[in-house]
Amino acid sequence: MKKDIKSIIGSFALLSLLTACSTQPGSVNIDKLTAEIVKASFSDKGIVKVSALETDEANKLCSTADVAGKELDDKTAKAIEAANLKMIKWPSNGKFVGDWKAGEKLAQSGRGLTWTDSATTPNGGNCYNCHQIDKKEVSFGTIGPSLYNYGKLRQVKDVASAESKAVIEYTWGKIWNARAYNACSSMPRAGHSGIMTEEQVAHLVALLVDPKSPVNQ
Amino acid sequence: MKVMRQLSIFALVSSVSIAALAQKTAVQSIEEYRALLADGNPAELFEAKGEALWKQKRGPKNASLEKCDLGKGPGVVKGAFVELPRYFADTNRVQDLESRLVSCMETLQGINATEIINAAFGKGEKANVTALATWIATESKGMRFNLPQSHEKEKVFYEVGKRLFFQRAGAHDFACATCHSKDNIRIRLQDLPNLTKNPGDGIGFAAWPAYRVSNGQMWSMQHRLNDCYRQQRFPFPGYISDATVALGSYLGVNAKGAASIAPAIKR
Fold first, then answer.
1. ipTM confidence
2. Which of A41, B148, B204, B249 could make a disulfide contact with B243, Cβ separation 3.0–4.6 Å?
3. Catalytic residues of B
4. A63–B159: do the CB atoms touch at under 8 Å?
5. What is the CATH number of the domain that holds B186?
6. Which band of pLDDT confidence, cut at 50, 70 and 90, is reported for residue B1?
7. How close is the nearest chain A Cα to the Cα of B32, in Å?
8. What's the predicted TM-score (pTM) here?
9. Chain B contacts of A52, Cβ < 8 Å?
10. Does residue B94 sit within a domain?
């Protein structure tokens, strides 16, 4: 199974190479030139190293599709989603739902992982930058959908109940690695990319699903 | 000295006003605040400094910048800003305003380009480039962006810039496009212009250089792009590096027809 995914991704890599070799305008290979310009233009600063630009195949495929102004074809999108779904790490202690109050604090913070942050700067979840969450917070972004009443709308009445299990697992997975459900999602892969720890992801899940969370009032 | 004092008083007043205004919706407050400042944009101080620097004999060669060719012939300032970045035959490169100014400072005045490039924003000769860029932009206020795209290298830089704009990378998988490829979206309360097309007069590329009220600094387009990349969790883009100039070409060409309001005033 693992081999299958690898070979699928491999064939996409080849495909993307073929389609990426655009030679307009004139005879210059734009993609090759872009790579050279990136290499010459960026440098390490603080905690951010140029290696941060060496990204995975999914990012490359999504960027190439964006440049072409097209959506990924269904097959490629499904393969990226399947591969990312396999990479989700589920809570090692089995605890999907943490403390919504801690989740709210994480959701508020957009800090961490820039070249002006230190390695010890606590990372924020960046959630309010893009989403409405607690209705009391009026300073929210609209890049992503509103998450107000997230759990209520999904009928989560008791986080320990069997009925809410699927929703809660999905919520964990979405925060851990959004690409598992939407190949070219704009959302950072909070758990997968090491932005949030397991414990912090559980707090964010709580903020969204806990019936006591202000999100569900 | 007088300028410094004016600026610090301004910063004090602005922080008090922002706190007082915080009870209204923030967007309303910012708009009202901008309106209040429209008559006295502190960018004027930088414009005056820039104009003086253009005419002043300076550097090891004791020369002014009045023979600098910004694309419309030596010494022509009016209208130059809305056609940059563009190709320059003497350097055989596509250059944005700041890149071109650094070339002129080096060739005409003998000022060391590497030192300018390596300085921090707001320091030394780099602060002078920002002041010069502010004045030069002001001379094209109200004119519409119309970058030339006839030279092969200009077309190539547009295409490179487009790829940079959509490049997803870093810890957060962000690209410029994550925030700037849709209409009517915002981050927190900050409106995000759609930079894949002309976002409108005085919006996006047509607003910088701008005076930033929140930190009391004059920011050039290079500074703006640099801080975007910082927030994007990307590594450090070199000042006037080809990546930043190519990105400027993409944004500038897309802004065709947008009237420049630079220097704008920003939160």
1. 0.89
2. A41
3. 228
4. no
5. 1.10.760.10
6. very low
7. 18
8. 0.89
9. 169-171, 233-235
10. yes
